[in-house]
Amino acid sequence: MRMLSCLSLALRDMWTLSFLRDVLREFLGTAFFLLIALSSTTIWPAVNTQNSISHNAELYTSSSPSDLNSLQAPPACRTDPLMVALAFGAALLVVCVCMGEVQLNPAVTLALGLGLRLSPWRAAMFVGAQLLGALAASATLTSTLRGHMGLNEVAPGVLLYQAVSVETAVTFQLVLCVLAVSRPSSAASQSLGPLVLGISVMLGHLTAIGYTGCGMNPARSFGPAMVIQNFNNHWVYWVGPCAGAILAWLLHDVLLWPRWSSAGDWTTEFRQLLLTVPDKQPDPEHTAGLEQDT
To answer: What is the pLDDT of residues 2-29, one digit of tens each?
Structure first.
C-alpha cells in the first residue's frame, strides 16, 4: 500500500508543469553546455593560415602523386589543454546564468539526491535528461566537426586505479563547491555562485586533463562515447565521479554542516520525502539548507 502511494505521488509530480519544465532545463542546459565545451576538444590545425596557403600553392604546381596526396591529407593537429579548461569553465558559467539552478551533471544530482534535496524520481529523470542532452550535443558536433569529439580516455602510463582516484578528486571538489555555494547562508550563493562553479570546473580540467581527459561529469563522458561507440574503460568516468560526489556529500552534510544526528534521522526524512505530496514538501531552503528548485 505504501509503495502504491509513493508511485501515485511520483506520477502526480511528473505530470506537473514545473517538473516538466525542470526536466527540459536539464536537457537543454546540458546540451548547450556540452555543445560549447566539447567544441574546444575537437582537432584544430596546428599550422597558421598563411603557411598553409603557401604550402598548398607549391603543391598545386607539382604533378607528383605523392605531393597531391600530401595536399589532401589534413595538417598536423593538436588541442590546447588551457583552451579546453577555459572553455568548459566559461560554458558552465554562461549556462548557469542563463538557465538558472540546473545541475547538468549526474554526479551532482546524486549528491543532491542523497542529501534529500530532491526526490528519487526527480533525480532519475534529471539524470536521464542530462544523458540525452549530452548525446544530442555530441551527435550535433559529430555531424559538423572532425576529431574524437572530446572522448575521455585514460592516458598511456596511467593505471586504472590512478584514473579513478583523479576522477574522484576533481569531482569531489566540484560537488563540494556546488553544495557550499548553494547554502542560503553562503556569501556566494547568489551572485558569485556560477563564477565559483566555473572556476571549479576549470581547475578540475587543468588538474586531470593530462591523466584522464577530465570527465568529472558522467554525462559529459557518456555523450562522445555513445556517438563514437568507444566504451573502453568507460566505467572509470562513472565510478570516480560518483565516489567523489558521495564523499563530498558526506563531508558537507554529515561532518561540516551536519543535518542529521543519526542514520535514523536520515531514514525518517527520506520516508517523509517519499510520502509527502510534492506541492506540500518542505522548502529545501529551510530543511535541507540548499536553494534547489525541486
So the answer is: 566 556 665 665 667 888 888 999 999 9
Global pTM reads 0.79
The predicted pLDDT at position 146 comes to: 63
Q: Are 154 and 233 in contact (CB under 8 A)?
A: yes
CB-neighbour burial class of residue 247 (10 A; exposed 0-12, middle 13-18, buried 19+): middle
Residue 123, C-beta contacts closer than 8 angstroms, at least 6 positions apart? 109, 110, 112, 113
Separation CA 264–CA 270 (nearest Å)? 10
Helices (H) then strands (E): counts for the chain: 13, 2
Rounded CA separation 200/89 (Å): 7
CA–CA distance, 171 with 230 (Å, rounded to integer) = 22
**Residue 261, number of CB atoms within 10 A of its CB:** 8
Is residue 43 within 8 Å of residue 79, measured between CB atoms?
Answer: yes
User: Are the beta carbons of 252 and 120 closer than 8 angstroms?
Assistant: no
The C-alpha cell at 129 is 535528461
Q: What is the rounded CA–CA span in Å between residue 29 and residue 109?
A: 14
In terms of C-beta density within 10 A (0-12 exposed, 13-18 middle, 19 or more buried), how is residue 21 classed?
Answer: exposed
Q: Tell me if 102 sits within 8 A of 96, measured CB to CB.
A: yes
Cα 191–chain centre separation:
21
Judge whether 94 and 64 are in contact, CB under 8 Å. Answer: no
DSSP state of 184: T
**Hey, what's the cell of 68?**
597531391
Secondary structure (H, E, C), 41-94: CCCEECCCHHHHHHHHHHHHCCCCHHHHHHHHCCCCEECCHHHHHHHHHHHHHH
Region at 205 (left for phi over 0; alpha for psi -120 to 50; beta for the rest) = alpha
